[in-house]
## 1
Amino acid sequence: METVEEFLAHAVALEEDSAVRFDDMADALEVHQNDEVTGLFRRMAHFSRLHLAEAQKMAEGLDLPHFKPWEYKWPDAEAPETPEMDATHYLMTPHHALTLALDSEKRGHAFYADLAANNGNDRIRELAMEFAEEEAEHVALLETMLAKYPLPPGDWDEDMDPPVAVD
Amino acid sequence: MAHTSVSIALTGSGGAGVMTAGQSLLDAAAKAGFYGLMGRTLGPQIRGGESAALLRLGTHPVQGTDDGYDIIVAFDWGNFARFHDEMPLNPGSVVIADPHNGAVPDVLAPSNPHVVMVPFHDLAKGIQGGRVNMVGLGLIAALIGLDQAFLIERLSRQLAGKGAEALAASKAGLEAGAGAAAAITGVAPLSAPDPARGERWSLTGNEAAGLGAIQGGVRFCAAYPITPATDVLEWLAPNLPKVGGMLVQCEDELASINMLLGASFGGTPSVTATSGPGLALMTESLGLAVASETPLVVVNVQRGGPSTGIPTKSEQSDLNIAVHGLHGDAPHVVTAPLSIGDCLFTTQWSVYLAESLQTPVIVLSDQVLGQSRAIIDRPADIAFIGRRRVPETLDASYRRYELTADGISPMALPGMEGASYTAEGLEHNPFGHPSTQTNFHEEQLAKRRRKVEGFDYGDPWAMTAGDPDADIVVLTWGSSTEPAREAMERVRAEGRRVRLVAARLIAPVPVDRLTAALEGARHVVVVEQNHSGQYCNLLRAHMDLPGTVHPLHRPGPLPLRPGEIVDHLRGL
Amino acid sequence: MDVPLEETPVYKVKSYKSDLKPIWCPGCGDFSVLSAIMRALTELQLPPHQVSLVSGIGCSSRLPAYSTLYGFHSVHGRALPVASGLKLSRPDLTVLAVGGDGDGFSIGGNHFIHACRRNVDMTYIVMDNSVYGMTKGQASPTTDPEWPGSKLTPDGPGVAAFKPLEMALSAGATFIARAFSGDPLEVARQICEGIQHPGFSFVHVLSPCVTYRPEQKTWRERVHEGFPEPTDDRREAFLRLLDDDAFSTGILYKGRTGAFQPHAEATTRAVALGDQFVI
């Protein structure tokens, strides 16, 4: 990553992808009448969009490069703050949902912290530091929230009824 | 005394060329101003099997076979016993055979024909490149009074690429045959054709169905070959591209019908042609066409069933599957052409119905209509062109399966911005979203039924003829119409009053129109070619037929003949 | 600053998303494929009304209704002929077909073979979870012969698993790829390339079933980039497949045969076709 424009393009995509994924997960949980987790995911999506707006504001006036979705330089398969869809479950509890969110914020923090430490561009390092600090705040916030929702008993995913035939 | 119609059978095997001879005779007779009809019967061999060309020529339009044949020309008797019952003899008929092939088979003896021996093979051998079928043609032309010049003109075109020797050999064959005819007495020639005749066409029912489809607006066909429907496809393949369309040969009938669904979903009126086994494979997706309200037309050229049955012979036994073969309550349209020429009108009308109603239409043609060639008057122009209702405004309020008064909902087409939807085979709400809700199921079932049953099918629903107030009604559908019409005319000539009602619209059963058409009937004779009386049963399930009902039905492979219907009518 | 108009993205991911929410189990791989399709379309800036999405029956076949594309949710096994008929008669449209392993390789297996050899320009995305999800978890053609998880085949199906990529290559498909739903950006890349490829493009997506095959969670560890670059050499492609453990991902093969698309300009009026019958 060599230019500020490139960096901000990543910052925008990171938050955008995260917002879309949290919304998709909220939809999935809503269809399965898990209202508590649906609400949590909607809030996560909302926060991602707030951060997206901040990143977009910083990019105002700049000509950000276009990357194809698979061309971004993410450390993993997807943008760091995009929670993995297969980590959801229809009976998941707020504990699971917050753990998922916390993990994604931690990955976001690690992504920015790495740039802040290792990138060769002074301005990118500076910005990455700012972003990393903000992510650290999110991590702390989520840790506080998570403390209110201890690990549920081991049978949290037990369903007395079998799955049904649909089509 | 001259005849107004004569029936001729040419039979032979092992490459005698009876089909070519029959076709040449029909074409030449057409040029000379006659009307006519040619069917065929074939052995199971792909090449060289026993076969017969079955012709009827007349001074007036003939679209059905007579009770029997006036002239049988047999180049040999190979396997004749297998299909002799398809060639009954008329009283006073003449059988012309080659003495080298032995005596006339015993099966013909009860008819007591006038037998004449003509050494076809010797006569042909005496000519360089001579063929028995040309000798036979020359003989027949002389017997029925057809000017040989018309045959020579026809042969000149047919043999244009084969050089002067071939034509000379054929001419010599015709001459030899004409010479042999001079010794045959007792065959009356045909009367002279009507000099005031207009333009006439020569076509098979399968070709007529193809033309009707294209004239109705069809531009896409996907199909799998099957006897006796393949000729529809072979005609469409070169003709669809001429109007900017295409035919795609598929891996099976499942692919055919589903390709039609895709093409029609895209806005292209579409047709396929098949026969019983193929129709059976298509029924699941015909249900999808009903549920998703996707228009399409299936021309089902019926053959003997069930299962593989008798692929080369006619039967009207797919009515049940066409009407009832779909699972669930699946209202759709079933039609039937009434004659070879009517395959054009009925198929074109069916495209119009499919497009107007956004529903599948099954056209029940059959082998005898599809594979017989007829000389007919130029068909009248047909006003029915498929027009699909499309939305006037395109926005988020668009509902593909909107509940309308007539049940027909505007259909958006891919490419129309702002009205995209998902065509759905699951039960759905008016937007097309899947739903198991009671009210949506009831509304959509009612809507689909309303559009099909409430539609004004107009006069084409049936053809009527005869004495409008007669208390004897002959009720037919599809190919049983022509023999019944001829039977009616014969009985009327005897002084009886009879009327004919021939239904083009099979389903939905037009109860009100049928009730009106049958008003005052004391006898209703329902004529059809199947074993169980499928049409009669269908009508009885939907309405009370007036008077005494006489189901008159029998299966193929023998075609229905006027005489058997006459016998029944005389007994009333 | 001035941005040329044609470079301004008009369509965003949400332009392709309908108001209908998927009924899939949370955690299902199909969510990622849905989002990958939308990302590919966004990348290509294809107007939603110019794209059609056809499916058969099964969990993944529910996908069209979740989009704002012109969808056709057809019957079991028949997505490919429906899509073929649409594309052949409307070559102006971008046509996608989607479905599952049962829909595409079992009941629709014959259409799969013939769609590969017919090479109509469309993209077929199969979400393969080796199980029938909508009928309560029976073995599918791609299920391991030993899998004991279904009441229908308690001792395992006992039949060797179908090999979709080998079949596609043998039958003549000109674009063959495999991805894992857990890597949705790679799925999007393959779909994007498949759409751009002129011919029949087959994208095989390993898409785990969380309900009937929870053990497929381990697929994340098993998948590996086995096809880093496509080859245009069929022999090379076959050799790669002989070494394939069914978890190699990437674009395997890109052939050069042109797409099948009959086209004819009208030269005659329909009513004039009757002239050929005049005596």
Note: The longest helix of chain C spans residues 30-44.
## 2
Amino acid sequence: MNPYRAKKYMSKILFAVLIAVLAIIFLLPFVVMFTTSFKTMEDAFMVPVRIWPREFTVENYRKAINKIPYFSYMGNTAYITLLSLLGEMLVVPMVAYSLAKIRWKGAGLISGLLMGTMMLPFTVTMIPLYRTWHALGLTGTYVPLIAPHFVGNAYYIIIMRQFMKGLPNSLFEAATLDGASEFQMYLRIALPLCKPALTTVGIYTFLSAWSDYLAPLIYINKKDKMTLSLGLQQFLNEYTIDWTQLMAAAVIFVLPILGLFLIFQRNFVEGIATAGLKA
Amino acid sequence: MRKRTRIISGILAVLMGAVAVAGCKKEEPPVQSQAGAQDTKAQAGADQAGGAAPVPVSYWYYHKGDEAVMMEHVIQRFNESQSQYVVEGFSVPDKQKYLVAMSGDESPDVIELTNSEVVSYQGSGLLENLTAMGNSNGFDFGVFDAPAVDNNSIDGQMYGFPITSVIIQMFYNKDILEQIGEKEPPETMEELYDMAVRATTLDGDGNIDVLGYPLFPLASARQELIYAFGGTWVAEDGLTPTADSQEILDSLHMNLEFRNRYGIDQVQKFVATGNTNRYTPQDIFFAGKQLFRFDGPWLANQIRDNNPDINFGVALIPGTQANPELRGVSRYENTSLGIPVGAKEKEGAYAFASWFATEGVKDFLMEIGSLPANKTLFDDEELMACNDVFPSFMEALKTGNGVPSLKMADTAQYTSLIEEYLDYVYNGTKTPEDAMEELQKAASQLR
Amino acid sequence: MRKKRHITRSDIDGFLFALPWLVGFVLLCVYPLSMSLYYSFTEFNPITDPVWIGLENYISLFKDPRFYKSLRNTCFYAFIATPINLVTALVLASLISRRFRGRGLVRTVFFLPSVIPMVAATMVWIWMFDPTYGFINNFLKWFSIDGPAWLINPKTTKWALVMMGMWGTGTTMLVCLAALQDVPVSYYESAQMDGANGVQRFLFITLPCVAHVIVYQAILNLINAFQYFTQVYVITTASGGSTSGASGGPENSILMYPLYLFHNAFIYQKMGKASAMAWILMVVVGLLTIVMVKLSDKAVSNAGGE
């Protein structure tokens, strides 16, 4: 082997090792979560720490599911998530279309406002919003959790707008000549072409609604209406934390999201790239 | 370039729009206050009592997990004991939820309270006067232990029915004590320190293996370890901060001497571990890695349930050589039941709360392993027999050395300040003198 | 363009299409924002009505050492973690911008942490940070390093948060990756012919080409840093050592600004003071964004980008 080839070979190996080490570091918390969830309390508190349990137990899962009404919380979470999804799907592409494809005077201003709202700290609006929902008698219901999704999230609108800007104008010009109204063009041309971006926004919405913590923390106050993220908190007992059960609960909380992500990975990655690059 | 200008103009527009609207906005829509409507409802509830469906009463408590189950048992017993009301329990561990919900339509009818919450909620006008309610219903307030009445009273009126009493005493590991050649637990802090040093051992890496001085649990290090020297965080009026008193400094100096002896980092790490596995089968006390433990009677229940291989005893918390009469000193706090002013079903709420505080409380105390606030149970043989350590704790309760809870309106803020400044002392960031002086200064701003 | 003042058909269409968002903007943004400004001059708790007290909330905040402490903590996180996250993201992105087998998988692995619900992820990290049973210190022990009590020692708590942040930098990494892949290959080829080495290529070609993306990501990261809440809320409630219910970690070392705001609003029941804090945050973040945008304009045009 000549020295040049050897050097190249070496750098390839180094690179592979580096990537492997990094991947392991990034995966580690997942591994810890999964394996701890199958450990007995005794194994979990062993020193030095063993990654792999000495004996596998599914007891933690059984207890975790019994400790909180897991499936009813999951149903609540799914209900909120689906309605939120519906809201964003209806509104986001419409607003984005207005900004990307209709030439009108307010478009520039709205684009600026979108950026402005993105930097708005949630804590600023938290107290007045609570008082408003409360005055309307809607706290304790899912309305405060779902309604905001029916006006469109700024970040999703930006993603969608970038995608729509990329659609060839010629399509729309031809339709205008044929006498199509904006709404017809939106429905028949823009929307069908937007499927990839719609999927991206859909997954984002799903993720954020599924994992939302603060809004349910503030608005939900009936046991039968609780969501999974609140249910998870029940494991942080006042006096003691059962780490193995907590990890089991976390695993079943995270699994649906992991599954969804792995299926729709491509849309995810592309959506983020578009939004980040061109916004 | 244009994009950036747009971002800036967007931000400015949002800000200015908001300022403009705020300028126009003068009044706030009335959010609540329907006291009249509630009375009629309560009335309707009482009328219905004769027959038909029981009236629902909502009850929020902050216990979670296994303890929530015990709370549900109480509720179940109440619902079975009568047919007029049906109590619906709800475990709400988030304190802020109580606050926001009590502001109106979804206010629970009964809530579980700590002493400091009694003070702060009452200060905000959120709680019903139970003395008035009790008197009109012929309730005998004499059943409660006097300090418990005091803890739940503001200006002589009670706002909470005490359910449990919380005091802390000294658990000790008999085997470790024997190993260092002692037969009896210490009676003064000086003796305790001496034994603690002899019992503390290090492993090969210089990390602590057995901890002698009772630095864990953190809450009792902040309270009983101070009280044992005669220090308290407020003067007797419950209102004036006394963070820079000599007694507190004495306690902190001994604390710090121990920490410095074994290394601040080492102590910190050991305490952190103790905190992670607190009350699990691997708890440092259960595992024989802690000589003295200032903790509540529930620790005995935990020991019974986890069945560790440990030989323990309970004794009064020591006093000092100078003040031996301080033995048995401890916080004296209660968990109580209150009725929010926004409650819809106040009659039902009163019925449940007064039942819980009297008839219903014994079974609950036996299950959860807490001490009574109800004097009639002080010598109850069945209750005393359910927990091996109850007799020792009752002895401490009767010393009258209990330190009542703070009565400041800003109690939460003061407590939080204490936590912060003790951290400075423990970590060696500030000397006890400096830290306590600053704490006293900060606390004097509070109400 | 004389017709500019007329309202055209497009204007009406555009307005109608954007109407849902505009309604939401007014109801969920402008209105609460203005209310919170009004609240900041009042004193109230969840049950009482606001009482006008003028500037008192602001005055008491400016005298409150904890206000400054929380601001310092947040600034530490914002200005230390943000650059670290950006560099991490950029390094990871440049690693996987190379072609190799299993690249898609590695990309997934790096991005995975970003999709995990914050509450669950934080709980796992708390467990990993435990000085005795946690994986991290046990790992360090293999190299004979005596790891600190990460979440207990006030000197290390913030760095623990920084580590968690690096782990969750996936979104930024994906954007950087896309930006790197947008750099025309021809640039590199001609640079290579001119004899530029790897470092030079990175500094003089890659960096200018992706500068605007990095700046945008920096702004987003910074804004997020000023809203950092869930992680510290979970950490401080899980640690269980506090009786006040308003813990900011050891020595309040991770008392982030939004957490202190939350304590004021819901634990100390000082909603007016909390609203004042919210508005100060608004203004700080707003100014910061403007400064960043201005600076980046200069930086990007100096670098010859765009």
Note: The interface with chain B takes residues 41-42, 45, 67, 108-109, 111-117, 119-120, 130-131, 134-135, 137, 139-140, 217-218, 221-223, 233-243 of chain A (CB under 8 Å).
## 3
Amino acid sequence: MNTWLAQHWLAIIFTLKQFILTPFASMFSIFVIGIAFSLPVGTYMLLDNIQSFSKQTADTPQFSLFLELNASKSEIETIKQHLEQHPQVISFQFIPKQQALQQLMQVGTSGHAINSLTHNPLPDAFTVTTQHASPKVLEQLYETMQKWPNIEYVQFDSVWTKRLDAILELGRFVTILLATLLSTALIMVIFNTIRLQILTKRDEIEVSKLIGATDNFVRRPFLYFGAIQGFLGGITALAIVTFSILTINKELVFLFDLYSISFQLQHLSIEDNLSLLLFPTWLGWLGARLSVASYLWQIEPK
Amino acid sequence: MIKFNKVYKYFPDGFCALNKITFTIDTGEMVFVTGHSGAGKSTLLKLIAAIERPTSGEIVVSGQNIERLKKNVIPILRRNIGLVFQDHKILFDRNVFANVLLPLQISSFDSKAAAGRVRAALDKVGLLKKEKALPITLSGGERQRLCIARAVVHRPSILIADEPTGNLDAAYAQDIMQMFKSFNQVGVTVLMATHDATLLKDTPHRILALNHGNLAV
């Protein structure tokens, strides 16, 4: 255990020495990683905010059920029972046709035209409030209600939630694409940094291998270096995103005040922040591992 | 301990470095490998530490068949061998002490005991007073001795030296020779390549003479 720790300690010391020996080169690589990573993270953070904003502002989903004109009292009762039993329905209100007509007349402008009608053309109706759910679930609910007896027409304005959902989906896709591309770039950046370091440590690697060092022993310091560089890159990305949120929020307050909406960008959750740090760490490790592997393969006696 | 059986080594360009070499070296023996430059001395030594692989034939070191040894087992083989290189292969970015410490770090030797081992090895080669010196300040002979200290610090059972007296004057060379003899006296199997005929005058030890890749018996 003690010697195992000592080996890792040795590797960490090596990493710190490298950072001290090449402060500018190390810092530049870290900044490259940080800037590259702040792009997908920033997009992700924006999407997260748009989503929660849309949840805040969107009314709870509402359906209007219009009954057939000749629906009897008992048939209305059956639909009431259906609604009471449905798990997703939070509340509903019955609007008899007379009430609907009165409401329409109170609106005013069309009152005169309505007075000239010989009979009430409006059907009985229910307004139904349901739980928040994905457009898909609401779609299913819509179809279920459409199939109930004596229902003439179900109205549900799901178009805008669908649109928003589609836009968010597109945004997520772009984020993933961006993240994939930039992750590949990060691996390459680390690969090259490590390759340069290997070249400066060529003698040490050669001698170590000759006197019985395992590949693990040779690899370890470089893996630490890659991982730590990735980690610091992640921190830089976090700093960039945090700084952006702070500055953008100042502008947003001004903009949204004009629309009298209170909205501020929220930072990512702690879990997201943590994975933001761990992912580049892993990528750095991977880049280093590939770099050392390719070098060890080159010097292997054939 | 070390056994070669019909070993051939061809280089990729078709050059035959070793031609059907067969010999056995017993545990605790001291053997010299001689021959003109290019005779195959270095290649022969490299085959023992699996630094080069034979084209065909059988090589047994410490009871292990090494001609097709798996890549991940080679480090274990090498930790049992002390290597003194013709070109020293000293690391110039660290002091004498750290250079000798390296084999112990590699084999995860306990760090407290390691310092004692390093000083013991430096003492044996007469470099104890220079443990903090940087290799660049050492003379050729001192560098050679540093290389020897590094080769013996982990107490290998086989010591392989490639022209350890190569660029040294006669007195220094005799010194180094005595050093190897003393290692051999404590039971280490020593295999040394040299082209220096004067050094081997009246030696009681066995000589493997190589000539253009052939072993003259």
Note: Chain A has a mean pLDDT of 83.
## 4
Amino acid sequence: MASEIKEGTLDLINHLPILQVITPMLIAPILVVLNNKTLSWLLSFLGALACLFISVLLIQTVSDGSTLTYSLGGWAPPIGIEYRIDAANSILLFLISIISVIVLIFSYSSLHVEIPEEKHTLFYACFLLCLTGLLGVVATADIFNVFVFLEISSLSTYVLVAQGSYLDRRALSASFNYLIMGTIGATFFVIGIGYIYMATGSLNMMDIAERVSELGDSRTVQAGFAFIVVGMGLKLAMVPLHVWLPNAYTFAPTVVTCFLAATATKVALYVLIRFVFSVFNYEDSFVNELFFFLIMPLAIIAMIAASVIAIFKQNLKKMFAYSSLAQIGYMLLGLSLVSEKGLASSLVHMVNHGFTKAALFMSLGAFMLNTKNVYINSLQGLGRSMPFTSAAFVIGGLSLIGVPGTAGFISKWLLLEAALGSGYWLVAVLIIVSSLFAVIYIWKIIEVLYFSESSESYSEVNVLTLTPIWILSFFCIFLGINTSLTVEVANMAAEILFK
Amino acid sequence: MDINLDFIYGHLPYWLFIILMLSGLFIVVSRGNLIKKIVGLNIFQTSVFMFYISIGKITGGTAPILLDKSYSNSDVAYSNPLPHVLILTAIVVGIATTSLGLALIIKIREEYDTVEEDDIQKMDEKDLMTYNKKNVLEFKS
Amino acid sequence: MKHHLILKVITKFMVGVIVLFGLYVQFHGDYSPGGGFQAGVIISAAFILYGIVMGLKNVQKVMPVWFAQKAAAVGVLVYALTGVFSLIFGFEFLNYHAISPEHPKHGQHYGIILVELGVGITVSFVMIAIYYSFAGRTPRLDDKEW
């Protein structure tokens, strides 16, 4: 508990939950004040590294199943804002921090192509604020605080997406649509919080959970839950509410696309998970029916339809944006099984897909540095002239399909197991069908990369650009072989959430 | 038919909240003009602010400023200040969203010379066709 | 706005009053209605009024664009560093007791003033920056087209 913090001693270990969130928040205004391009990259990189370090410390602290709580301003939890780190969110904190570090390495050599130099400082400040928001959403245990951080991250995301307008003006309308949809989503979320507050009189997750179970079948709580599901559905691009995602991912700068695809939707999904399991009673028939009759069919539609659409897209960024929708379908499916295994598979898939999709988008970004566009036929023969990038791309693609030995295999296997364990064999078949569609679109690209003649010859991108791509590809394989980090922590997290 | 007037009257703030919320949402969905969309979004958000403020109302409650320093006077009922504080935050978020939306509209107008969604979509489709033909996305730098 | 002599004179008079009232709201925010948000908006209203009446160029002589941007960031820093201050002294983030451990009530008082100061600075300069960025773009419409 918070009282364990000894007053008057400088002991930063106790303050890790808050340091995780405020480190990037502190650096962002400093960047604006200093207003120096190189320095701002360096500072944001160091900040992200610090975040990564903190998240590793946190994951070590909570990996034995314990929880770390931190009360902001010294106000004890039900009244004050509480930060609560357990296995479920420590794994996401780690994902967000490490992706931000890798993306920042990549941005050093690629950003100047996509964004005019004078905007770099503000870009990095925005990026750090987005990072703050995402980390804050995950770390906090106060439902209104979730909304505030969600909006910090969303607002900076809109700005980041709009930066793509330097290359393509469609980024502006994509960003605007995202803003409208995102704000509607956030407002629905606030209405949901309002209903919960009306029914329970509390904003602390643990406190609400207790009071909700006392209330029993309350229409107010159910209405609040419905609003929250719709609001988060908008933010995480659940299928009928996904229209903002493909354009936003396509026209945003590569750096932003990488970061968003790997983290933003996952954080919204995490919020949904947290609400279902830590705030509401998942055994409640209302929640169960909602998952069975609404979320599971939608998740399956996403898996199949988005994969099919992805096959026909010529713009590769758009192709992978649709593939992201399908992958979100997998995660929602795991969640909608409402079983411990399903939830664990969902959490593992969040991490694995984060690395996979970041690797794919980043290697696309590297191709784009040379070819100047992301259409499929401009990649002809790049497998020979850019061997390292292409190899990394192939590894990412294999992981997306779920070939044994890669990260994607582990999470899809867990999902299959969970689906079969719950007796949904038809769902299991559909998961495999959807993976087969992924084979088609990945193969289309591999074919163009390796089996067609190139009209122009390009040289390989420099080492600094290759490093982050290969770090991500390494993780795609590493997490497929060594599953102790992801699967064990996810199982622990699922156990905690199902308590 | 027996209409429970007491129920309707007793929940007046909620009816207003629902009417405002739905009209705001309707404007966002139905209007093609981007500025009108932002206006609709604002109405939508404002309805939520009203909803929160009505939650905080306590019958006979005064403004939540401590009148009695000794904390002992329990006769005085205060309205709940927490929803007000939450909404102050939400208003600030709303301002940020609105100004960002308007800034995007200005940029869109500079690039497309229109703020009508349909026109923008048509121009995008035209762009896409030329892009497909050339299949090259020129870098400005 | 060449002819509006009355507006100009009144504006010159009002700007000071508005800023003064803003400061009043700012520093009484801890024990009466008010605080950083409201004060920030009021103070920025003074500058925006000046800008509307006297023209953007004139107000930017007083308050350059770069200053507004950086000052907004400094406001956030004031807020965050207040929190970090208590961290350094071993208290929780934003625990105002750290400012005056012997008299926790005084600490609360100073803490809220510091935080509200940060909020006030940020809000006022952000509002001014928003005004600048909108007003700085000349519309392509002629007056007749309105």
Note: The two ends of chain A are 19 Å apart (CA to CA).
